[in-house]
């Protein structure tokens, strides 16, 4: 070790005994970034200003090596012990900056060499960068959390990573640092007893299961931080869309939004090969909403509103003549809503009444129509882009035929299908909320402000410990491994800053927070017997039961219908397993459909029957063991489900242990579910600031004969993967006159696809399933259009190539004739003197004149059955 000591740097730092050395497997260092003023030079004032290389064994370097290694070991959950950096990352060097009077200069330590940072001035500055070098084999700078890579203040980074140290400059303690479960790289560790390792196939299977399990969980609502004044603004477009759809004073409701994909009804259907009105006719054309327009139209009072051209949901308004109070004007004002639609596959944009458009999920092209398009020959198809883009399905010309419409309509269908496969959250904002944790022992010295990741992962570890101690049914084969690391002491209340989103592009639809959406679940899959946090499904009303008895039949309750969620938040989080890419979650309250005259106090649904012994326990009563909670053997999702894969068990994290339902969602092989939650305070779910400003809208109208009933107990919300979202809910959609034909067929065939749009069946029967992410709607449309045209042009070219090859093969040979039809002899008909070959209809012999010389030709059959002309002397 260097014997040189400098004022400002303690010489007491030494390498601890029995230390484990950590080495950097990769680096972003470059020696060309080192300073060049390494020689002391005294200026005219007797001052120096130079950079001295500090040896690796100097006290200054040892201090950094020990403190950085201790923090890395803590963050990586390594075994207890003393850790020291083996050396600096390749291309790095510690420098002692000497500046000031030559006899007593000021000393500043700098670690220099990084490509992305000019210099690291302190240990806390370098720790997140060192962690990135250890854990990111790709060296993707966007994954680094240091101040130079993510452009955040050092104080915020230090607080979020739990790196605040005492003024004495001691190394970060693992006991005061929230742990984070990260797969550590191959580092030198203390010897540990060998463990039996699973096979590679088992490890891969386990990782795939953890990665592809969509997440669902119920938790206590986080308490928001109420600012003195709103600092986040509600997006104008969101406010307009929600107000026009759900506002209590709105008379003309606008259900569709700019950019959404809809079906546009044609004024005159394009008849298919089977004739007018056939199933192979084109009744709708897909298009995107470009803008909306409200047009006031004066209408005479005596005019029948139903006889006016074009349907409208416009609301007539009467206006009195201001010049004469005794008389009124003879007209009323009708407000007509229309949409400017950009038709897909062509260059046409048209204004269409709001009564002539339908949601994309409500209509699907029939099999007969698709087959008719494939049956059009390539010549008639004419997929030339110069022709297809100019096609106008709304033209009144007689030239609009099915054959000419086939190519542009096929392109439009493919573009629409591609667009429905994209998704992205939009319009982010900062959501602040507080989490209360139980105090274990005396208060610890920790930061009052931590990152969302640190708090979530700390709670996740503790919740997993609880889950591991809960008994599972015998023979279930399920076991949750315990996590040895205890929950780090946390402050009584933590303020969390979370990035949330105001909206979502979900396939063909534009979804906003604060509106009611459909989920893929059926009500019978969600706590079919009820539990502490979720009500049991409602049964049929008394009138429905009486009617069913009078008809000699049975009637079901809410368990066979769909589930709705009032979307109150969208956020991105780490996967529960801690591995893989981030996932997007939706949070909100759940609703079910109950009979309109259903009354909760009269609902006699049983919660536990105790195997037929004793009195049945109704929902809300005490259990046989005198406790309240989830009955034994119940699971959140039990019984067969059309949804795959099954949902994850709930380890989530962002709330306290008492405020979280542990293992509410269980795997199909786990029959039990447990919950630990204190009684929640009665408060409205919408009082939570899960949106930029307190602006809520009433629930939409339920389907006829039903009403909405909350499923979750007050004060709780559900967190689900976006995978479980089926789509938007459109009140009264099945009563739309354009769907009469489809509703009649669904009633006759017993279909479930249409009923799912109003929640009468599970949402999985009619759901959006987007899988591709694009940052903007325009990027989605652009890529969808390009891919559709390229794919179909290639398909049509291959089809034409096959047709040409078949035609060429067919014209290469004369058709063979069987020998019995060939006769020999003289004379014949069908050939003139100028012909030297047999003509069709002859007896197989011909005569001709070649160079003035009469010659006889004879057709003979070869061994392979083909005809051959031969001259006969």
TrEMBL record:
Residues 83-149 form the Cryptic loci regulator 2 N-terminal domain. Residues 194-213, 792-808, 852-863 have a biased composition (Basic and acidic residues). Transmembrane segments: none annotated. Pfam families: Clr2_transil. Residues 20-41, 165-215, 301-327, 792-873 are annotated as: Disordered. GO terms for biological process: silent mating-type cassette heterochromatin formation. Residues 173-182, 314-323 have a biased composition (Polar residues). GO terms for cellular component: mating-type region heterochromatin; rDNA heterochromatin; SHREC complex. It comes from the Eukaryota. This is Cryptic loci regulator 2 N-terminal domain-containing protein.
